[in-house]
């Protein structure tokens, strides 16, 4: 006698066996927070879960089957994601990182030789305001550069020293993996416009911009191409 098959080709006996026994995962929440949900495409609350698999008979757990990898569950869509989803910054955090990056680059380029130039300060202030520091003033930037020089022991116009290079990398390294190439190039070009506001690049400005490019993982050839392109009137 042939077994009765359903539309999916599985036998009634197989379907019945699955109802009698199977594997169930019991999830336990071990943390929560806010993350950028890949499914929702925005910031959402999440729970971090750990799970244990058990073999069940008639829905009753009878034998352990091991543990599951830690999982992140979105509170909105209930989607499950690997914990690497938490590495992506939230929209709020990303905006803050971008704002801080533009501010740090502006200070670095000004410290390389632009604080005495009103044009450079105006260009830097406009870029920093556009990035999110809406109350930024030229006087504030000039005062910050002076404080930076006192703290690092360098003078305006000197090459990018270790302390300033570290600050650039601290601001740009975490941001670079989350920016597409045009976004990374835009930050470098903003710095280039500040440097060019009062004339051709000085050696110190080129050094600072090269450090910016390296922190943004832009190759040396592309940094040179972008700096040359910035000098060409649009």
Notes on the structure:
- This protein is an alpha+beta fold.
- 47% of the residues lie in helices and 22% in strands.
- The chain has a four-stranded antiparallel sheet with strand order 1-2-3-4.
- Strand 3 and strand 4 form a beta hairpin.
- The termini are far apart.
- The model is unreliable at 1-7 (pLDDT under 50).
Beta percentage is 15-25%
What is the element string, with H for helices and E for strands? HEEEEHHHHHHH
Contiguous uncertain segments of 5+ residues? 1-7
Alpha-carbon distance between the two ends: 82 Å
Helix content: 40-55%
For the biggest sheet, the summary is: 4 strands, antiparallel
Looking across the biggest beta sheet, what order are the strands in?
A: 1-2-3-4
Rg, Cα atoms, Å: 28 Å
Summarize model confidence as the mean pLDDT: 84
Number of strands: 4
Specify the overall morphology.
Answer: elongated
What count of helical segments does DSSP give?
A: 8
Structural class: alpha+beta
Domain Co-chaperone DjlA N-terminal: 101-225
Protein name: TerB family tellurite resistance protein
